[in-house]
């Protein structure tokens, strides 16, 4: 799993471990947090390892997948969770901003999926975390971020077609406002985000992790998008 040291990533790592999976926890910052997740996974009786990789670096984005397979003796599930959020007026976004967001949110997902497909046996799973902003952009300032997350829908459908003969599925999860340290439910912009959902609240990392766990076990679901957004797109 990329981006597994906190928030949705950490919750997903623990949920998959509860379902019987060994878990490699990828991180770029927060080594101590990643190691805490590893210890929590091990406390559930599963094997785990923390692996540092910067998704903005093409070689590391692919290399961490091979490192995970080597450390744990194979690869059955890839969860693409690492991402960067950058919002701002169109005219303020620099070429450096564009390159970084696309490198992490799109290129790294492609490269990790490519590397995983080469290592997976029959029945593997590729699960990618996108964003509710790929379906609905509620206000200005989201052009770059929404573009990067929308690209994942095309990639997911293409992966499903290309890998389906091998029984490998590819699916996309679209979280809405989720209570994490990056976007806390009591933050300065939280009330407005909650009001945009049909349920009127933030979701939890565990609610997103439940969807990932479902897709990890689903054998006849592929090329699909699943909104875990409280009705943000309703």
From TrEMBL:
The answer on whether this UniProt entry bears the keyword Cell inner membrane reads no
Q: CDD domains of this UniProt entry?
A: SDR_c
GO MF, one term, reads: oxidoreductase activity
Q: Which domain of life is it from?
A: Bacteria
Q: Which InterPro entries match?
A: NAD(P)-bd_dom_sf, SDR_fam
Which keywords does the record carry? Answer: Oxidoreductase
Family indicated by similarity = Belongs to the short-chain dehydrogenases/reductases (SDR) family.
Annotated protein name in UniProt: NAD(P)-dependent dehydrogenase (Short-subunit alcohol dehydrogenase family)
Q: What is the scientific name of the source organism?
A: Streptomyces violarus
